[in-house]
């Protein structure tokens, strides 16, 4: 039995509220159970120096956790003093979102997606990617409405979900009690039914190819459910 009482293939409840901040071109608050992340997308007509004159757009991300997002207060991280974990997660969010972008259609501009964890209960990076795509899509919709972009550079949603082996069973969408004790923990990012990235490791026990396949099956099921919520949020 899972601590939450969920079935092995059952996700936490997921909601996405859009337009949660006044000034950002795109914003949403995604809630995956007790994990809550505020995602905002900001459009900048400038691109990083290495892209000047190429005609290509760029999507990047920043990630952070509020001091009381977890059970105990943590210190705020200055940008030049970010932990290795924070840097790794924001790079993951950025490259995951770029995987679903036609950077030629986007034009020579940058969109920065900020993901701020208000409350953490496992799966914060996955919620950030899933909600980050919604904020990105809303920002792109504004650009298209203004005529700055002719064709939609976002073809398919990008979403992420965690899966793992807990108490000897393959389970979908780990919350913190499961994540902290899982023998195997993985994050799966997909777009358009294709894999973008898998982060997976044996935390307390090794795993077989058959178990890996079961986890991937669970991830595809979960991503399909997330895509449905994402599309409903941006239409």
Automatic annotation (TrEMBL):
Residues where phosphate binds: 85, 123-125
Pfam families documented for this protein: RNase_PH, RNase_PH_C
Annotated ranges, domain Exoribonuclease phosphorolytic: 10-139, 156-222
Keyword Cell division: no
Entry-linked SUPFAM superfamilies: Ribonuclease PH domain 2-like, Ribosomal protein S5 domain 2-like
Catalytic activity: tRNA(n+1) + phosphate = tRNA(n) + a ribonucleoside 5'-diphosphate
UniProtKB keywords: Nucleotidyltransferase, RNA-binding, rRNA processing, Transferase, tRNA processing, tRNA-binding
NCBIfam families associated with the record: RNasePH
Role: Phosphorolytic 3'-5' exoribonuclease that plays an important role in tRNA 3'-end maturation. Removes nucleotide residues following the 3'-CCA terminus of tRNAs; can also add nucleotides to the ends of RNA molecules by using nucleoside diphosphates as substrates, but this may not be physiologically important. Probably plays a role in initiation of 16S rRNA degradation (leading to ribosome degradation) during starvation.
Name of the molecule in the record: Ribonuclease PH
Organism encoding this protein: Cognatiyoonia koreensis
Gene symbol of the encoding locus: rph
């Amino acid at each position: 039995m899972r601590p939450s009482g969920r079935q092995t293939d059952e996700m936490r409840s997921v909601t996405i509220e859009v337009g949660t901040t006044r000034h950002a071109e795109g914003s949403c608050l995604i809630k995956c159970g007790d994990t809550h992340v505020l995602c905002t997308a900001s459009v900048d007509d400038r691109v990083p120096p290495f892209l000047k004159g190429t005609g290509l757009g760029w999507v990047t991300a920043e990630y952070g956790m509020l001091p009381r997002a977890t059970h105990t207060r943590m210190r705020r991280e200055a940008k030049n003093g970010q932990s290795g974990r924070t840097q790794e997660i924001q790079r993951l969010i950025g490259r995951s979102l770029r995987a679903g972008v036609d950077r030629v259609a986007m034009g020579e501009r940058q969109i920065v997606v900020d993901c701020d964890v208000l409350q953490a209960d496992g799966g914060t990076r996955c919620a950030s990617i899933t909600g980050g795509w919604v904020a990105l899509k809303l920002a792109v919709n504004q650009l298209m409405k203004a005529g700055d972009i002719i064709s939609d550079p976002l073809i398919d949603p990008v979403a992420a979900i965690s899966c793992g082996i807990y108490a000897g069973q393959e389970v979908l969408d780990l919350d913190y009690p499961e994540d902290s004790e899982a023998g195997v923990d993985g994050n799966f990012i997909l777009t358009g039914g294709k894999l973008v990235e898998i982060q997976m490791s044996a935390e307390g026990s090794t795993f077989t190819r058959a178990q890996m396949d079961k986890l991937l099956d669970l991830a595809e099921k979960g991503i399909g459910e997330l895509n449905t919520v994402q599309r409903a949020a941006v239409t």
